[in-house]
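Slide 14.
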Amino acid sequence: MAMLTIDQVEKYYGAKTALTKALDQISFSVEEGEFVGIMGASGSGKTTLLNCIATIDTVTAGHIYLDGTDITALKEFRLAGFRQKNLGFIFQDYNLLDTLTIGENIALAPLTQGVEPSKALKGTRHIALRLGIEDILSKFPYEVSGGQRQRCACARALIQRPRIVLADEPTGALDSRSARILLENFLDMNEHLGATILMVTHDVFSASYCRRILFLRDGRIFNELRRGDRSRSEFFHDILDVVTFLGGDLPNAP
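Slide 15: predicted structure.
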């Protein structure tokens, strides 16, 4: 059975006289250990879809299952615990607390869930070492680069070993060098830490790091690409062909 199953999901916004259909009968599944990208033009529904999976938004119809649990049926009082246990979030704007150090930002989640401080500290150092930020744990977010802040956000998402990591345009605020480093970290997270990643992106270069891409148009799945045995450069050009057809921006090749 797939780890994540999206079953005939629909999402409407607005009143009865002016309804907007953001998601239109979307169905797909994600296996454990996959690195899946979601692409589409502005208004295609990709962020809405991610927000529904993240339980930040609710579906109008259909179901979303994680490890067989119908998360669309969870009551509000159970959602917070479900998110903490199962979901890791990486946002474009980092969402770090400026009053806490990098290390404290990473350790906050386990500490608030009752993990012993010594164990939380050990876990923080371990994940920081894997992501190359062990030397900035005592610094505050405003004292480090955007790339380092984003790697801190990755560490914070991974420290609790979530079932799935949800990333919303994670390279959007980064320069090209920082973006490449972050994406290499994503690969390491996926291939060596076993993280299952679902990433929304408009950027073809970022998408080329995924193993599978779902393309949305007008709230529906328009196309799907799997990398297979192709090189990342070859996959980049295949993705670019679809994005060009959809009318997206044309980035530079890697």
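Speaker note: The chain has eight helices and ten strands.
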